[in-house]
Amino acid sequence: MKLRITNYELRITNLLALWLVLLLCGLTVNAQLNSGALQNNNGKAGTFVIKNARIVTVSGAVIESGTVVIKDGKIAAVGATAAAPSGAEVIDGRGLSVYPGMIDAATNLGLIEIGLGAPGTVDTNELGDNNANEKAIIAVNPYSAFVNVSRNIGVTTVLTKPQSGLISGQSAVINLVGSTPGEMAVSANNALIINFPRVVAGFGGGFGGFGGPAPDFNELVRRRDTAVDGLKKTFKEALEYGRLQDAYAKDKTLPKPKTDLRMAAMVPFVRGEKPIIFSAERERDIKAVIKFADEMKVKAIILGGQEASKAATELKQKSIPVIFTNIYNLPVREDDAYDAFFAEAGKLQKAGVLFCIATDSETAVIRDLPEQAGIAAAFDLPKEEALKAVTLYPAQILGVADKLGSIEVGKIANIVVTDGDMLEARTKVKYLFINGRLLPLTSRHTELYEQFKDRKPNQ
Fold it and tell me: In this predicted structure, what is the pLDDT of residue 113?
C-alpha cells in the first residue's frame, strides 16, 4: 500500500515546520534578552579609591575635594585627607560628585515584570484578606529587567512589597545587585503591609459598586469602621496567639496551641517590635490610622499620604513617618492647585514630619525617583532636604540607616558618582557601586540605544 500525501497536507507540514523554527528562534532570542549578562551583571569586587571628587555625604558637610575608600563591600574611609591603600583601583573624580545611592521606599520591583497580559510574571497578589505570612523576598526575581534600568540612574536600594488584600504580607529591603534574593536582601522581612480600610465609594475602594446611587457618607463611614473593627480583632487574636505560644514554650505541660502561620507571622508586628506600613491617602483615613496605631500600640508608617500635611500635627506628635508617593499624581479635588502634590513634601518638612519620596512602582518609573525629588525641590522643599528624602530619610524610616543612606565609614558601599547634581535630569551616572561592587552601566535601554543609534532614516 502506497502512502499518498496531498498538497494540502504538505503545506500544513511545511507551516508546522516553519512555526517550530520560529518558536526555537524566539526562545533563543528571549533567552539572550533575559540572560544575567544583560539584566543583572554583578560587576566586580575589590578595593577602590575615588579621589579628587566632590563628596556629598548627606549626613554631614559636603567635602569639596576628597577621597572615598571602598573595601570589603563597605566604606572604609572618607575625607579630604583619606589615604589610599596600596593595590587599590583608583578613580580620578576630578569634576565629578559622589553621592550615597538613592533608596526607593515603595516599589514592587522583582515581583512584577509585565503587569498586564502576563499573569505568570506577577507575584504581588494572593487570595484572601490576611496574607501576613507572605514574604516578598521569596518571590523577588534578581534578573528582572527593571533592576538594571533602576540602578543605572542611581537607585541602589528599594523596598519591594506585596499589595493585595487587607493584610498584604511582608515587604523586603533589597540592594539591586545579587544572583539570589538572599544576596540582595538588606532587611528580608522589613515591614507588614496593610491596606487600611478607607471611606470611599465606587469601584476601586471596595465599598461601592457598579451602577446605582452611591451610599451616603454616614453609611460609608459605618462600613469603614466595621472593617477597622475587624482588623482590630485580627490584631488581638495575633497577640493572644503570641501569648499562648510563649506560655507553651515556657511550660510544656500546657496544651500545645494549634499552629497558625498567619497569626505567627503577625506577632512581631502587633507587638510593636517591627513596623507596619499602612496605605492611606486622605486626611480622614490618615487620622484613622494614627488613632488605630495608638490604640493597638504598633509602629506605624503611612504609605501614600496625599493629604498627610493636613494631619501633620498628629503625625509629628505620634512620630509617624510618611512615605510620600504622589509627586506624579494629579490633584484629587477640583479646587486643588495644580502643584498640590508637588508642594506636599515641602509642607511635611516645614511641619517637622519625617518623610521620604518614593515612586510606588514596579516598572521603569523607579528610574524617575531623582526627578520626583527634584520636582519637590522646585516647589518649596529645600534642595538638601530633597536629597535626604531619597537617601537618608528612607533609610531611617525603613530602619536601615545604620547600613545605608549616607557616606559614612562602616556603611555599605552603595555609591553613585555623577557628572553633576544627582537630582538634575541632565546628570549622568559615571560610576556605580552597590555592596562595594563596581557595576557596568548597562540595561535593556542602553542595549537598545547602541543597536539603533547609528541607523540612518531610510534603513
Answer: 82
255's CB contacts (< 8 A; 6+ apart) are: 248
The answer to whether the beta carbons of residues 368 and 155 sit under 8 Å apart is no
Q: Is residue 2 part of a domain?
A: no
The amino acid present at 31, given as its one-letter code, is: A
Domain of 78 in residue numbering reads as 44-101+414-459
- What cell was used for 110? 522583582
Residue ranges of the chain whose pLDDT lies below 70: 1-40, 201-214, 459
* pLDDT in the model for residue 31: 42
* Inside any domain, residue 39: no
Q: What DSSP designation does 425 have?
A: T
In a domain, 1, yes or no: no
The per-residue pLDDT of the chain, averaged, comes to: 89
Q: Kindly state whether residues 340 and 233 are assigned to the same domain.
A: yes
Residue 204: the pLDDT is: 40
- The answer to whether residues 234 and 337 belong to one domain is yes
Give this prediction's pTM. Answer: 0.88
Assess whether 177 and 92 both reside in one domain: no
Look at residue 15 in the predicted model and tell me its pLDDT. 57
Residue 340's Cβ-count burial label (10 Å; 0-12, 13-18, 19+) is: buried
Q: How far apart are CA 95 and CA 88, in angstroms?
A: 21
pLDDT of residue 18: 56
Q: Copy the grid coordinates of residue 154.
A: 542611581
Query: Do 132 and 170 meet the contact criterion of CB atoms below 8 Å apart?
Result: yes
Q: Are 11 and 54 members of one domain?
A: no
How far from 287 is each of 90, 175, 277, 302, 310, CA to CA, in Å? 52, 33, 14, 10, 9
* Same domain? 315 vs 428: no
Give the per-residue pLDDT at 193.
97
The packing angle between helices 217-250 and 261-270, to 10°, is: 100
Contact 443, 149 (CB under 8 A): yes
Same domain, 123 and 180: yes
What's residue 207's pLDDT?
41
